[in-house]
Design goal:
Number of strands: 21
Strand order of the largest sheet: 5-4-3-2-1-9-8-7-6
Number of helices: 19
Shape: globular
Mean pLDDT: 97
Largest sheet: 9 strands, parallel
Helix content: 25-40%
Bound molecules: beta-D-galactopyranose
Radius of gyration: 25 Å
Distance between the termini: 39 Å
CATH class of one domain: Alpha Beta
CATH architecture of one domain: 3-Layer(aba) Sandwich
CATH superfamily of one domain: Class I glutamine amidotransferase (GATase) domain
Structural class: alpha/beta
Low-confidence stretches: none
Length: about 625
């Protein structure tokens, strides 16, 4: 059974977009449960995530399972017509597991073994954790596989949130060595890839290799890069071990896990094929003016993970969170706007952390759909209104986000490599670059997809414009594909410090950026980042035209006709206003238009296309004033 068939189990249970949140009934007694049922009905809840942190309650002693408490909740939810994303409960191991098997606890890079008492305190390579986790997943699948409430499996929780690249114990070290053996075959190959003749690092055997633990100075960059890869793969292996047992026992139930906001830790393009539907947790800071844009970008990333397919917003906060230094509330209306923003960018559900605000524990000051104050609160009133509003657009369910004409290229291994230490500047950060390129499109209400560096040529050529922010590390094959994309008519906007190293962080020789020199029509001789964080470089034009130059006459933006297409190059980061003007010009040249024309300042629109082919525009007013927008579709 493939993912489309499995997803029917979820979508078949929903009459409109999914609406609800993390439901943690084990924190409450029967009276509250009865009220939950009533309030969920009032709020229009149709989907909840159940059991995320319920391992200790469900398996109170090794191998002794107690499902009775859960049976009742699932029955009640089924009766109320609420679909359930049932968690495999493995994100937070119970105290007995780490008491009996302290080796499960992760070890930091300086050798400190972390303690239990919080959550996610497990080593991703631990066979003990994996065996116990899979055993629990198997029990859950066997018991609830045919339960009418079960619509979706939710494996673990936010992989890599607390423990990515966080284990340097002996078990992890052995696993890392095994992973390297698989990747390189021989230690000679590894020595070559890791440039170990530098600083006398040549290895005689795999047994001499460690995870990049705390060391006197810079650690080998290729080793660090491989450790990033290994960590993402190792967590994926944990996920897959559980998934394997779930799909064996319940082949008709879709499987997902929730991704952390704009996380660097996991190579999400490598993970995405293993999720039946992408799921995401979003926590914009209501006091950060850049948050709506960052959030829009993250949603574009989520949509890009499965080539434009809708995804699930699995968590957001109805009001304040509790984990920033100061946790401001979301002002009235903000939650509604945030929710529609997610839908506009492709979300098929609007779920919250969590349904009912906890009374005790570390998250008691985190907002919830039902606040401590209960039904007579502003938040619950807004929750109720939003539930009714979402339900009144049933056509959105089954609609697909309209494909954009522009895309931004993102690659996790290059992101990891870009931000390694001992570089020309510590100020070059991938997210800053990606957001700076995406913002002019967002501000102009131009839709932008996100694609992986591995996207094939046919898929790339669907786009008129490709933004390539700081693609520092690139394989020859990817570079060649990007060049062909332009040669055959595409337009790229590429920024500095792209095409510098290969997949082992070895410099592409032949003048920077060697794989893109012909494409860009220039050569970079020296990098010269300034103390204020500005990046500059010395460029020699080899066919490109300078579009703008610095006061000293150095080209800052160049344009080069290459075959049928055009390659723009930014040798520095223009100020936001100039970046907007530049991208407006580029867009005009290659015909990339806003979703709707002439939208007032602060108003943004995205389009979804229904199964019947109708275009639905979701129009978001992110400004402070009321505006009226009446437009025919383009
Ligand atoms: C998420 C997590 C939830 C909850 C939430 C609070 O990272 O998945 O369990 O902790 O944050 O904002």
């Amino acid at each position: 059974m493939d993912e489309t068939a499995r997803l029917r189990r979820l979508y078949g249970r929903l009459a409109s977009l999914g609406y609800g949140g993390d439901y943690n009934p084990e924190q409450w007694g029967p009276e509250v449960h009865a009220e939950d049922a009533e309030l969920m009905r009032e709020a229009g809840v149709n989907l909840v995530t159940l059991g995320i942190f319920s391992w200790a309650k469900t398996e109170p002693a090794p191998g002794a399972y107690d499902f009775t408490w859960l049976d009742g909740h699932l029955d009640r939810l089924a009766e109320a017509g609420v679909a359930v994303g049932l968690a495999t409960m493995t994100a937070s191991p119970p105290p007995w597991l780490t008491r009996l098997h302290p080796s499960v606890l992760p070890v930091t890079e300086d050798g400190v073994r972390l303690h239990p008492g919080s959550r996610q305190h497990w080593c991703p390579s631990s066979p003990v954790h994996r065996t116990h986790a899979v055993r629990l997943a198997e029990r859950l699948a066997t018991r609830y596989g045919t339960h009418p409430a079960l619509a979706l499996w939710h494996i673990g929780n936010e992989y890599g949130c607390h423990i990515s690249r966080h284990c340097h114990c002996e078990v992890s070290t052995a696993a890392f060595r095994g992973w390297l053996r698989q990747r390189y075959g021989t230690v000679a190959e590894l020595n070559d890839a890791w440039s170990t003749d530098f600083w006398s690092q040549r290895y005689g055997t795999f047994e001499e290799i460690h995870t990049p633990r705390k060391a006197p100075s810079f650690r080998n960059p290729a080793q660090q890069l491989d450790y990033w890869r290994f960590s993402s793969d190792e967590l994926l292996a944990c996920y897959l071990a559980e998934k394997e047992v779930l799909t064996r026992i319940t082949p008709d139930v879709p499987v997902t896990t929730n991704f952390v906001p704009l996380a660097k830790t996991l190579d999400l393009f490598a993970w995405a094929p293993h999720l039946d539907v992408i799921a995401y947790d979003s926590y914009p800071d209501p006091h950060d003016e850049s948050a709506p844009h960052r959030t829009a970008f993250s949603y574009d990333v989520m949509r890009g993970l499965k080539d434009g397919r809708p995804w699930l917003l699995l968590e957001q906060a109805p009001g304040a969170v509790n984990w920033r230094e100061r946790n401001g509330r979301k002002p009235p209306g903000r939650m509604r706007l945030d929710s529609w923003q997610a839908v506009a960018h492709g979300a098929d559900s609007v779920l919250f952390f969590q349904w009912r605000q906890s009374r005790g524990g570390a998250e008691k000051f985190h907002s919830a759909m039902v606040p401590h104050g209960g039904r007579e609160t502003r938040i619950f009133r807004e929750v109720r209104e939003l539930g009714a509003e979402l339900a009144s657009y049933p056509d959105l369910l089954g609609s697909r986000p309209e494909r954009a004409d522009a895309a931004l290229l993102l690659d996790w291994p290059s992101w990891w490599a870009l931000e390694l230490d001992a570089h020309p500047s510590a100020d070059v950060r991938l997210l800053d670059a990606a957001l700076a390129h995406h913002k002019p499109l967002y501000d102009a209400s131009v839709a932008c997809d996100v694609v992986s560096a591995k996207t094939d040529l046919a898929a790339l050529t669907r786009y008129r414009l490709l933004l390539i922010p700081n693609l520092y590390s690139v394989t020859n094959e990817t570079a060649e594909r990007i060049c062909t994309y332009v040669r055959t008519g595409g337009t790229v906007v590429m920024s500095y410090f792209s095409g510098i190293t290969d997949e082992h962080d070895r410099v592409h020789l032949g003048g920077y950026p060697a794989p893109f020199r012909a494409l860009l029509g220039l050569r970079v001789e020296e990098f010269d980042p300034r103390p204020d964080g500005t990046w500059t470089e010395e460029i020699h034009l080899e066919g490109a035209q300078a579009v703008t130059s610095s006061p000293e006459g150095a080209p800052t933006v160049t344009r080069h006709t290459y075959g049928e297409g055009t390659a723009w190059y930014l040798s520095t980061r223009p100020a936001p206003k100039e970046m907007r003007a530049l991208l407006d010009r580029v867009r005009a040249e290659c015909g990339v238009r806003p979703t709707l024309p002439d939208l007032p300042e602060g108003v943004r629109a995205r389009t979804r296309v229904t199964a019947a082919g109708d275009r639905l525009h979701v129009v978001l007013n992110e400004g402070d004033l009321s505006v009226e927008v009446r437009r025919e579709s383009r």
